[in-house]
What we know:
The protein is α+β, with helices and mostly antiparallel strands. The protein is built from seven helices and nine strands. The strands form two sheets. A five-stranded mixed barrel has the order 1-2-3-5-4. The chain has a four-stranded mixed β-sheet with strand order 6-8-7-9. β2 (19-26) and β3 form a beta hairpin. The longest helix has 19 residues, at 218-236.
Amino acid sequence: MLVTVEGIVIGKRDIGESNCFLDILTGEYGVIEATAHGVKKTNSSNMSAAGLFSYSKFCLNKSNYKYTLNSAEPKCSFFGLSSDLKKFSLAVYFAEIVKYTSAAEQNGEDILRFFAITLFKLQKENSDCDLIKSVFEFRIASMLGFLPDLRACRSCGKFINGDMFFSFEDNSLICEECRELEHNMGEELKPLSPQLLHTMRYVTYSAAEKVYCFSLSGDTRDSFLAFAEDYLLRQLGRGFNTLDYYKKLDLI
């Protein structure tokens, strides 16, 4: 059966001299693996469309959840990422998160759209890689089912009530007053400055098109960068080699 989908190539593994496996993030089927015959040949009509981080329209032969590339038409290329090692390594880290968390044959439209927006933002000149990383980490966690409840204190329901804390036990907010009333001193809580809480709320609840439309500096920036990574890795219960490599680039 022939199926036509749009998607982004988020992984590519060689098979011999001219063939490869493509990991494609699609809206209809989530992340799928497709065999691409002859795509590495210099005269292949599918070479550019099947490149890493290419957004393309794919015509695939589907048989028992196995896919083979028939043809591909490029729609948008993020090839420019490959000219900047830091940006490219960050994109690879994002791709690894998506591949690890996305199940095949499940709708992935929202993640595909967000991933494309992220790559577009990352590819821009003078883009803030570290802030993009943190926004992606915190937002993708919500999209994967780990949505934190940042609307108000879980006990009194107040949007702001003095000092606010984030509970890692139930991913919710609690104010200082309610914390003292509950006497649950063994609960792991993180104090949140008003600026940090505002940032977390913005990234969680804003439209995908606007999620990167802000900047941060000073202590708020440092706190958000650390919190976003920690939050995602806690929810997934693992680290990523691609993340380790990205961090090492700052030491080179």
